[in-house]
Amino acid sequence: MPTAENAPNILFILTDQWRGDCLGYTGHPAVETPHLDYLAGDGVTFTQAYASCPVCVAARATILTGLAPKRHGYLTNGGVQWDYPVTLPGTLSDAGYHTQCVGKMHVYPWRNLVGFHNVVLHDGYMHRARRENREFGLNDDYTPYLREKLGEVYADHNDSGVGCNGYAAQAWPYHEMLHPTSWVTTQGIDFLRRRDTSKPFFLTLSYHRPHPPLDPPASFLNRYLQKDIPPPAMGNWVDHELRKGGHDSPIPRDPALVDFARRAYYAQISHIDFQINRMIMALNEYGVQDNTAILFTADHGEMLYDHNHVGKGVPYDGSARVPFILRMPKTSGTVERGSLVESPVELRDIFPTFCDIAGIDTPDDLDGESVLNCGGNNWRPFIHGEHATSANQWLTDGKEKYAWFTQTGRELLFDLTEDPREINDLSRTRPDRLAWWRDQLIEELTGRPEGFVQNGKLVPGRPIQGLLPHVGKGVPKGAI
Question: Which of 89, 149, 265, 446 has the most crowded Cβ, counting Cβ within 10 A?
Answer without folding.
Answer: 265
